[in-house]
Amino acid sequence: MATYPLPCTPAPAYEYAFQDPQATMTLAEGIAEFYQRHPNRIYVAREHRHKLFLNAHDALHVLFGCPPTFEGEWRLAWWTMLATDFELLLYPRLAISRRVQTTIVKGGLVNASLAFFGSLGELAAIVWRSRYLRGKWPARYFENHLNERLVDVRRAFGIRLG
């Protein structure tokens, strides 16, 4: 009787290639994928008065594997507070911008609120994973790491995706 190998567990499906914890693309390539899928964010990041913050914020989406959804934004907010050198005071200033207010109104305040409360459970996991960090991610200087592979950057800083 012939024996066959057991079926392999399928690899998890990622919405973006940069969400793979073992992604070998560079940070720049991950950002390019992010902007290719969300071209409206390029204009905002170039023209907005908080340009440095928004460009660094979009790089954080790639680094921490968070999609630009309400849920992903809350997850990224927790990572930003726990794992980067950004000051928390930038968030309230950005939150009062017309773009952010319009996004929340279009997406629905209820949806944004539900995503926030849903993210609280994930906060515990992010706090747990942040124990492994080897220092804060230098968000303002993300451009220094553009040519490094995501897997290497994540390993160097002890970033563990869930």
Keywords:
162 residues, disordered N terminus, mainly alpha
Summarize the SSE layout with pairings.
Elements: H1 27-37, H2 40-47, H3 51-63, H4 70-83, H5 90-95, H6 98-107, H7 109-130, H8 150-157
Helix pairs in contact: 1-3, 2-3, 4-7, 6-7
Structure description:
The protein has helices at residues 27-37, 40-47, 51-63, 70-83, 90-95, 98-107, 109-130, 150-157. Residues 1-10 have low confidence and may be disordered. With 162 residues, it is an all-alpha fold. It is 57% helix and 0% strand. The protein contains 8 helices and no strands. Helix 2 (40-47) crosses helix 3 (51-63) and helix 6 (98-107) crosses helix 7 (109-130). The N and C termini lie far apart (41 Å). The longest helix is centred in the C-terminal third of the chain and has 22 residues, at 109-130. The protein is globular, with a radius of gyration of 17 Å.
Low-confidence stretches: 1-10
Number of helices: 8
Main structural class:
mainly alpha
Q: Mind summarizing the main beta sheet? A: none
Order of helices and strands: HHHHHHHH
Shape: globular
Mean pLDDT reading? 79
Q: What share of the residues does DSSP label as strand, in percent?
A: under 5%
The end-to-end span amounts to 41 Å
Compose a concise summary of this entry.
The chain is 57% helix and 0% strand. The protein has helices spanning 27-37, 40-47, 51-63, 70-83, 90-95, 98-107, 109-130, 150-157. Helix 1 crosses helix 3, helix 4 (70-83) runs parallel beside helix 7 (109-130) and helix 6 packs across helix 7 (109-130).
